[in-house]
Amino acid sequence: MDKLIPNNLDHLLSPSMDRRRRLQTLTTASSSRLLPNSSSLQSLLRFISVEKDPLLIRRALRLVSRLSSPALRSLLLRNRAGENFSPRIEAEALAALFSVSSPFDDVDLLLSMVSSPVVAVRSLVLDHLSSTLDARRADLVVPLFLDCMADPYPSVRRAALDGLAALFAVGIDEARIEGFYDRAVELFRDRDEFVRSAAVGAVSQWAQMIEANEVEVERLDLAFVQPAMNNVLAFGYLPIRYASKPTMINQKEEKISSVARDTSVKVRLDAFSALGKLHLVSEVILLQSLSKKFLGVRNGKKAPGLGNGKESKFIVSSAAGIFIHGLEDEFYEVRRVACDSLGKHSIFSLQFADDALNLMMDMLNDDTMAVRLQTLESMFRMASCDHLNVQGKHMHMFLGVLADISTQIRHAARKVLRLMKLPEPDVFFRFSIESLVTNLETYPEDEEDIFCTLFYISKNHGNFAVKYTKEFTEEFHQGVGGVLWRCLHGRDGGRPDLHVKES
């Protein structure tokens, strides 16, 4: 049959043959040595133009792409010229062409395809450009992406935003994307949740690129606010030339909400994740994000670029309570990401860290282990940069975490305790030691980690360690035979036994 295929392809693929036979013919032809200039290629192209079965069309297109990429290009151009193949054929042909020519450099065809009436084709072109990006091709792709951000179909708008985000990742000069900001802000209120999410991601990627490049331009604390059914709020330092006051401040009569209150879980997740990646946010905006009540400017501090009067008040108030909404979200994934972002911003502002800690302490009682663990990891990040100031009212709650049923939670809590500066050490030094002793009795398998924590607490609070050593020693000896006494002195009062288990 292999020898008969080249000369009989028209007959074997004719509508008179059943589907199974035609599929078998295409499969066999794929393993045959068909010549690009043979009649087989023309037979396949004729078959594609009349076939309706998607699977058979896909097989035939793959075979054509293997034989001749120019033939596929010709097929697409003929369709654009008015031969009107089905939309599926055009999309499948383009996908097959991209599969054998990556990156695809036929500029004329790309420009033609990006204006195709077929949604799948436009999306394919943008996806291909995104996956084969090169900063040297920016002059070609940037106008395409910007134009497609206004496409009537969500999948195309999303692909355009993803393409721009990919451009930022390869380090394109921000001056070459003039106009992106205003269009991205418009998509913050898009009806499609995936478009809104992509817009947040693109702006976040852009802000990170600008921060990384340390652009020498005037910067602006920017709250992207759009009144709409589902409004979005993101903030960060961005160049002033991209900031449009009519975009930031629109129809004051309408109710303003933010991404923290978006109806889509995906958008909220992406937004809080993006907030954690922005490092140049002013303290004024950060502090306001922890309170639903308008705080104004503390201690005479003023964020650069906020303007004066109503404009300044609007920008600051638009960030009100962002993180509170995140920590109170009904989905634990959002709460976890909000905790993570809080920890990341806490390293830049001591005042923000203090205010954030009041909220994070409540998260230690969260029903989900992932949220509790992330809260402790954020606290550890704060302690590592000396921004963890735990108050006495929080200590009992924190020490209670040492008894958590989860090994991961207990270990994370001890890591924080090792770096923590105890409040009222004359009171809480003893409580901390007693909590660890109780911890050892309950979880003897954690003894190595517990003794390591005891060492660091004593090292960090040396005066109190010396003060209470005698008192503790007396208590230890009173408990001769107990777990702690044997761990410290050995079974017979000799070498310490760090691996003793309670019988």
Automatic annotation (TrEMBL):
Gene3D superfamilies: Leucine-rich Repeat Variant. GO terms for cellular component: endosome. GO terms for biological process: intercellular transport. It comes from the Eukaryota. Keywords: Repeat. InterPro entries: ARM-like, ARM-type_fold, HEAT. Pfam families: HEAT (PF02985). This is ARM repeat superfamily protein. The lineage of its organism: Eukaryota, Viridiplantae, Streptophyta, Embryophyta, Tracheophyta.
